[in-house]
């Protein structure tokens, strides 16, 4: 299977080429809207259909709904120090129930919207609540990190984040989009994190033909020097938004004039979310592509073009235990029940176990080759660049030993799954000789059965379900799996170093 999602992260010490961060050069923002609507999972549609039915339900029943709904959105379970930072969104009062609300189903409409999705997003925003949104522009895994950053910036700025769908830029642009809630368990996120979260499809009707104008901040032009336009994304187009961008001031870039780091800190971005610095930086406006309107950044729905590079203190932050966007947001983004179930079935399948039986403790390896060969300038040959299988096997043994020592569980080599984009069958024969199972989506017809998104999503879910994980250093895909295994299972993790001969010797 071709692995084209996620990307390599460069280290600041490495020699860098322009664009060496491998994020594909972005295209100027899209100027024509796609044909109407995007697929929405049917479970949501059916919920909306219930409205008519609910409108005849008595107020007594409604009251019990209201109780139910407030139970779904509890106050933050976070520690009091976190609570200081995460102030108002957590303490938002449950919505009051009025007679007018009879037409809504409180359990299905989160408290941060007025009701079912509307033709214009503005008609569904509460006047006592502020919101924040942003777009995607990379492979899926990095887009997941971008949404984590967006949601955390919502925490920092006391705003309700609104996430859109995932776009198929790296799995073939003609694949359909997949909604956030088809991948991540949104109700569970809200309940366990205490952080408010909306999906765009809960705010604006995906079928709406109405084009909404919106003013946003363009931070892309302030943090890099090659593209003289806001970061390109197909998301505004999917959402039928006509964006007018205001160029952010140069001070949002953390390291002035340094081209190899595009970080803006959450707190420098937050300065633009509040009146004092916002007002000082208005005026540098690019008219919107469709209606040609010039708008200041919206105060009700705050918006930034691209937040992949947002950080708390430094780049590549997901490697670090302190990373607040992981601690307060990312770790609560669990897979949907459906994804978890399929991932478990796949693991059992490759081990030759009954698919619907219990999943035994296992270890996953993620070996990223493919495009990583472009980062082999320190190696004489490609063979020298990537860690050979015996070197990876040493890491697997370290993980086995640690799990045995800390948990008293022995995981044999036959309960190890390899996930990799390597296409050389001789290499896979060596993998099999080590006793490891192969996650092979071609053989399992994953795309045919579940769609184009599932190979990549299932690999991530499978990696995150193991008690041990051996990843590829500097792969952002491995970085998130490493954190999930650590924080979800108290598991054992190692990253295999590469890039020159003997890189992982230790
Ligand atoms: C806010 O919205 C409510 C209804 O949702 C309305 O009754 C109230 O007048 C509005 N307040 C303002 C200041 O517009």
Describe the 3D structure.
By secondary structure, the chain is an alpha/beta fold. The chain has 2 domains: 42-331, no CATH class; 335-496, Rossmann fold (3-Layer(aba) Sandwich). Helix content is 34%, strand content 12%. It has 20 helices and 14 strands. It has helices spanning 42-54, 59-72, 80-85, 88-91, 140-156, 180-183, 186-193, 200-203, 220-223, 235-238, 266-271, 275-280, 324-327, 337-350, 382-385, 389-407, 425-433, 446-450, 454-464, 476-489, and strands at residues 131-135, 160-163, 198-199, 212-218, 241-247, 264-265, 285-286, 301-306, 310-311, 363-367, 416-420, 437-438, 468-472, 492-496. Helix 5 (140-156) links the parallel strand 1 and strand 2. Helix 19 crosses helix 20 (476-489).
Blueprint of the fold:
Layout: H1 42-54, H2 59-72, H3 80-85, H4 88-91, E1 131-135, H5 140-156, E2 160-163, H6 180-183, H7 186-193, E3 198-199, H8 200-203, E4 212-218, H9 220-223, H10 235-238, E5 241-247, E6 264-265, H11 266-271, H12 275-280, E7 285-286, E8 301-306, E9 310-311, H13 324-327, H14 337-350, E10 363-367, H15 382-385, H16 389-407, E11 416-420, H17 425-433, E12 437-438, H18 446-450, H19 454-464, E13 468-472, H20 476-489, E14 492-496
Parallel strand pairs: 1-2, 1-8, 2-3, 4-5, 6-9, 10-11, 10-13, 11-12, 13-14
Antiparallel strand pairs: 5-7
Helix pairs in contact: 14-19, 19-20
Bound molecules: 2-acetamido-2-deoxy-beta-D-glucopyranose (NAG).
Transmembrane segments: 47-67
Keywords: Carbohydrate metabolism, Fucose metabolism, Membrane, Transferase, Transmembrane, Transmembrane helix
GO molecular function: transferase activity
